[in-house]
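Marked as duplicate of an earlier ticket. Keeping the data here for the record.
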Amino acid sequence: MSDLSGPLLSVRGEARLTVAPDCVILSGMIESSRGSKAEALGSAAMSLDSLTADLAALGGVALGVGTQRRPLTWSAQSATTHVERDHDKKTGRYEPTGQVTAMVAVVIEVRDFGTLDALGSVHASHDAFSVRGVSWEVDGDNPAWAQVRAAAIQAAIRKGRDYATALGGSLHGVEHIADVGLLGSNGESGGLRFNSAQVARAASGPGGEPDAPSLDPVPQELTATIEARFTATGVSLAGN
């Protein structure tokens, strides 16, 4: 038990750390327009088969429970279709064009950045496939998270010491370390947790064009923020 005779000092500590990403996620879409729903779906299925065959040639596999950390994985959603419409100047309405478009969302995750150049070539060779977004990410179990969280605690301790010194005393004990917002006025916390965020998601490409994604690894900034409450001892306001 800490000595509660001294004042309580509540502070917030924050730390940031820039690290290399662990993976990149490409969110894309296969689109195919044909004269009927069946033809559009068939064309989209062929495009998907062709794309995944090229990914398999690079060592890629379908995403599954046992393949989440493989160097290259892909997943595809069920196809959706819609009737194409265009503005009719005579009627002023959007009328069917006679074409049906089938769309299949495809997500590609890459952990082996040595395949990125080849992956760019695969993307360029498939006209029906466009990349809509590129996201560089850091794994939740990356050791850098522990480093930045520890640094946030040390930042809070330094700030607490500054406050105690300004009062003519020193830190005596730790009352709480908590995630931001968990320290209420009664001093209760939800446990030792950290508020951390991954920053710097890459844009799809220059000018935001989905057909020109940037595949240059983007460093990621990890942030940890904690709230801490300390007891101080030897505090004196004499002469202040």
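See parent ticket for discussion. The two ends are 30 Å apart (CA to CA).
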